[in-house]
């Protein structure tokens, strides 16, 4: 009798397990189907009805995963079938406090739903691209989870818009995933550390850097030793900043010479001025050098991705009194590196910066690709600052007559 009962119970358990497996298959099918229909269609409504019928079963299974992870020192991947659940509750407008909190817990445990969240963000690209309006963004999984880290609604919108500055969807999907991954890494390291880096250093592109760089910058936030600045604009239309991390190599060489290295980001001239003034007030000293990794052309570099004069620094802007006062924030022997396409062309932005700020400027007079070919950094003869020897990875161009123009790196020195 006991054996019979055991077999009967086992069969029931197997039946339940098969039922759950069937539901997971159905869940995946619904995810594929929904991409073909818009919310106002009959088919979309039918998909929603079918999802609601199995929703409670999936939620119980996800909750089991959460409880198991919380109780164990070992960590396991969430079942692939359940990832579709998080995409569907967002797309079907079935988010509530309970399942949003469930998603937030799963997010902090692993990166297994990061792509679901990234897809949710990408689906709202047009909504977030709306310019100059205080529109009410529908709170999806991404918005809810980011607010859990104490980001305000405005900061969440700013972060997401900066990630969506990458135009290609496939590249943007990967980049958003990297941002989410590093924000989680920071929050597991210390609560609200990601918010601190945004509020004080303007860092939005968390996915552009290795996690150890971000942790180091946070740990050194109160370090009062001499330092230099590595700057990146928010604008990154082709995603090259996330795929060409120049900061790590520069950081290592700067630190070998006993200087502190700080990353800042800005989405416009006003934002950059705000970051530089913050550095002056907090660290009570002048900046030793500045390395700028930005998109540019002969007479302009890009900061932000929002329309308006503030998003660009143009050669003509250098005549303004506010821009000229920036020199006061830097040491007299500071060097400026412009890692950007074409800014080093004779008569262009780099040469004008050298004249206005009376500093050595290193730039490229051709388009650049990826990281520099070589970087050498050493202390100057007085030991008071650093000297940069950079060779950019530039590409040949055809001139008007069809011949190849010689590629190279240029240096402008103060007169």
Task: Give the topology.
Elements: H1 2-34, H2 42-71, H3 80-91, H4 97-109, H5 114-122, H6 125-129, H7 141-147, H8 153-163, H9 169-189, H10 193-201, H11 211-219, E1 227-233, H12 240-243, H13 247-256, E2 260-266, H14 269-283, E3 287-293, E4 296-297, E5 300-302, E6 312-314, H15 321-325, E7 330-339, H16 349-357, E8 360-364, E9 374-379, E10 386-391, E11 397-398, E12 404-405, E13 409-412
Parallel strand pairs: 1-2, 1-3, 3-7, 7-8
Antiparallel strand pairs: 4-5, 5-6, 8-13, 9-10, 11-12
CATH class of the largest domain: Alpha Beta
In percent terms, what proportion of residues is strand? 15-25%
Q: What is the number of helices? A: 16
Task: Tell me the overall shape.
Answer: elongated
Structural class by helix and strand composition: alpha/beta
For the largest sheet, list the strands in their spatial order. 2-1-3-7-8-13
Count of the domains: 2
CATH architectural grouping of the largest domain: 3-Layer(aba) Sandwich
How many whole angstroms does the radius of gyration measure? 26 Å
- The third-level CATH topology of the largest domain is Rossmann fold
Largest sheet: 6 strands, mixed
Distance between the termini: 100 Å
Pick out the low-confidence regions.
1-16
Give the oligomer, counting copies of the same chain as homo and different chains as hetero: single chain
Classify the helix fraction into a percent range: 40-55%
């Amino acid at each position: 009798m006991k054996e019979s009962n055991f077999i009967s119970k086992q069969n029931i358990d197997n039946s339940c397990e098969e039922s759950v497996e069937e539901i997971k298959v159905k869940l995946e099918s619904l995810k594929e189907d929904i991409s073909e229909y818009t919310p106002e269609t009959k088919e979309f409504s039918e998909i929603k009805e079918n999802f609601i019928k199995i929703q409670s079963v999936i939620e119980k299974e996800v909750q089991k995963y959460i409880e198991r992870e919380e109780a164990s020192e070992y960590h396991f991947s969430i079942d692939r079938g359940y990832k579709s659940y998080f995409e569907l509750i967002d797309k079907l407008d079935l988010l509530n406090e309970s399942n949003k909190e469930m998603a937030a817990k799963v997010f902090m445990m692993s990166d297994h739903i990061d792509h679901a969240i990234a897809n949710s963000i990408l689906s709202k690209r047009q909504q977030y691209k709306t310019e100059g309006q205080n529109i009410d963004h529908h709170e999806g999984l991404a918005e809810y989870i980011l607010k859990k880290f104490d980001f305000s609604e405005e900061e969440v919108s700013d972060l997401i818009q900066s990630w969506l500055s990458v135009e290609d969807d496939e590249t943007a999907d990967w980049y958003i995933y990297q941002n989410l991954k590093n924000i989680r890494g920071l929050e597991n390291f210390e609560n609200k550390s990601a918010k601190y880096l945004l509020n004080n250093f303007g860092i939005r592109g968390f996915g552009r850097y290795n996690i150890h760089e971000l942790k180091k910058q946070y740990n050194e936030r109160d370090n009062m030793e001499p330092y230099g600045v590595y700057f990146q604009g928010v604008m990154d239309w082709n995603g090259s900043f996330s795929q060409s991390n120049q900061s790590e190599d520069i950081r290592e060489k700067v630190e070998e010479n006993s200087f502190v290295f700080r990353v800042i980001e800005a989405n416009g001239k006003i934002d950059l001025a705000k970051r530089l003034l913050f550095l002056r007030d907090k660290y009570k000293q002048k900046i030793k050098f500045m390395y700028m990794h930005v998109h540019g052309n002969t007479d302009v570099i890009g900061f932000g991705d929002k329309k308006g004069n503030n998003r660009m620094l143009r050669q003509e802007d250098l005549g303004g009194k506010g821009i000229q006062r920036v020199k006061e924030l830097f040491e007299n022997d500071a060097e400026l590196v412009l890692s950007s396409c074409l800014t080093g062309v004779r008569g262009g932005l780099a040469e004008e910066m050298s004249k206005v700020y009376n500093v050595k400027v290193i730039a490229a007079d051709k388009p650049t690709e990826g990281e520099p070919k070589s970087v050498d950094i050493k202390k100057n003869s007085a030991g008071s600052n650093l000297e940069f020897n950079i060779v950019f990875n530039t590409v040949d161009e055809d001139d008007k007559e069809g011949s190849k123009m010689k590629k190279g790196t240029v240096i402008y020195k103060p007169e």
